[in-house]
Design brief:
single chain, about 160 residues, alpha+beta, Nucleoside Triphosphate Pyrophosphohydrolase, six-stranded mixed sheet, 3 helices, 6 strands, globular
Length: about 160
């Protein structure tokens, strides 16, 4: 089984007495039957993440992917954990892939959300801020929801970040 190693960021900022989280809405895959997006499909929100490049450390990947997919510059606070799963490629070879994604808590530094390069639009429909308190209801993936809960716990235990 092929392996993939990725990293991503839980990017937070504190505004008006509350925490916000940077998320992306990935481009949806077209329906095989029609070649068009499924109109009934609900909004899918996810955390920015991507493959670790050769010679790159996972925390560097997380910072890079956040910049590429959201337009934001962020600094590393702490590693939150790893998500491990198996998926089947829906393109090409239909191969099963074992994937590990390391997530890092990052603090927003600068940039405007959703100001990303045109070539990233094949992966990211848009990037936006959502209230951190609503992330558990709004994120699509269970493992990513767990990483956000870990981020919330970390921020509660480290008041110096607010």
């Amino acid at each position: 089984m092929e392996r993939e190693i990725s990293a991503g960021g839980v990017v937070v900022r504190h505004t008006a007495g509350a925490w916000e989280l940077a998320v992306i809405e990935p481009q949806k895959e077209p329906s095989a039957a029609t070649g068009k997006e499924k109109r009934w499909q609900k909004l899918l929100l996810a955390l920015p993440k991507g493959l670790v490049d050769p010679g790159e450390k996972p925390e560097q990947t997380a910072v890079r992917e956040v910049m590429e997919e959201t337009g934001l510059t962020a600094t590393l606070i702490a590693k939150l954990g790893d998500i491990k799963y198996v998926y089947v490629r829906t393109w090409g070879d239909q191969q099963r892939v074992f994937k590990i994604v390391s997530f890092y808590l990052l603090r927003y530094e600068s940039g405007t959300i959703d100001q990303i390069a045109d070539e990233m639009r094949i992966e990211v429909k848009r990037a936006l801020w959502i209230p951190l308190a609503e992330a558990d209801r709004k994120l699509a993936y269970k493992g990513e929801k767990d990483m956000v809960r870990r981020a919330q716990e970390y921020l509660q235990q480290h008041a110096e970040f607010s």
